[in-house]
Each structure stands twice: as structure tokens, then as C-alpha cells.
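**Entry details**
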Amino acid sequence: MRLLTLTLLLCLGLANLSCGGSSKSPVSAAAPLSGNWEITLVRHNNTDQFTFTGFLLQSGSTVTGSFILSTGGLIIGCPGVGSVTGTFDGQNLQLTVGEFGQDYSLSASLPSGSASDTSIAGQFSTLAGGCAGFASTGTWTAVRVLPLTGPFHGSFSFGTGTTATTIAVTGTLTQGSNIGASNASLSGTINETATNAFCQYLNSATITGLISGTTANFTLYGFDGSPIGQIASATVAPNATSLASNGGVTLNQLSGACGPLSGTVTLTFP
């Protein structure tokens, strides 16, 4: 009995470790930088922002990964995917992000035991190169995006006024393993809650997609495996409790009476 009591106490005290715990808090004490990150960079000489998104893997003091490089609409830079290498000793972080031969050096100093599991801020620099013909420095901030995994509920909305259509849904979603790539896979199921609806676009549907930073893209498939629609550029909350796409949803035509739809979606992960 005493042994059972001790085991229960350990599980309560270590709820996010081996005894189980929230899938929304997967930060490893041994590898706090491993995960999905969205980095925003701002140059010192202007307020234009650009972003790097993707996954980091930490093994000991070594950090590796891949980022999708976005220029944020700027005319400089080379969009694409860049490799990430670096070190983290528990306090000092150094990252090198490769942009097709022109490297970005990111540094940060974190107080011991600080918020490396949620956000980071530091300085960056880059020399002149093929992607930008001048050297620059600036600041960067990074936000961790927790795994988008678990049951959800929400709704799709299409049209306005008298033609407005709302489809309430429930489902589950699972995010694939972090392999240090620029994105991770998403897969799951989705079903309409109003099963008596005449046009059942999402009856026993499945979902596949990719996530990088706070952006996720999905393809929807019908019960027979045929593609039935898309969710493009959905924004995921960093704490992985919600997902929304404003205008990025399309559903294919089902029949002569059930035409194509375009609209929005909001999903909540309880």
C-alpha cells in the first residue's frame, strides 16, 4: 500500500513526464529546443519583418533542423528551405541558418531554467551575399508551436445572408514525429455532426496536411478516398488550442444539387 501511494505521488508530481500528462506540453528537459518554431526577424534599419518556420532537434548541446525561409514580401532574400545548425549549452544559444550560401547567425542568452520552452529573443546578423547585397543586423523572436494533436470540434462557414451555410464538425488530428524537417505531417478524421444534412460534404472524411510554425495546410478526402476539398494557410495558435482559416477553405462539388463551396473554418482543440 505504501509503495502504491508513493507511485501515485510521483505521477502527480511528474505529470508531464513518464507517468503521462498533457500532449500539449511535450517540452523535454534534456532537449528544450526540440520542436516546432516560428521566428520573426526585424532589421535594425527598418521595420520590415520576415519569418523562418520549421523544426529543431536538440541532442546534447547540438541543435539541427530546417526552416522555411520567407521574405515577408520583401524584394530581397531567397525564399525556400534552409538548413539549421547550432549549439545550446543551457544558457547561450547560437544558430546558423543557411540561405543558399548566405548564412544568418542568430544568438540569444537565456537565463538558466528560463522560457526556452515557450519563447526566445536575441540578435541576428548576416553578411552581404547572393540573396541580399548588403550586410544587416537586427533582432529576432521565436515562439514555440506545440503539437497539433487531439480531438477537436468547430465549424465551417460558407456564404452570407440567406445563402449562408454552417457545417458543424468533430474529429481528431495527429501530428507526426519531429525529424528536424521544415514541416511535420498532420493526419486525422472529420465528421459532420448533423448527419441528416442533405449535402454531406464531410461525411466520414479524412484529413492529411503539413504544419510549419503557425501555418498548416490540409487536403480533405471523402469516405471513398477521393479529394473533396482543401484548407489553405490555416493559422494555428502557438498553444495548439485552435486553428482558423479565413477564406482559405474550398469544398468540391458533390452533385448537381450540392455545388462547390468556399469559406472559412474554425476548430478548437479542448
Remarks:
- Confidence is low (pLDDT under 50) at residues 1-23.
- The helical segments are 2-13.
- The chain has one helix and 16 strands.
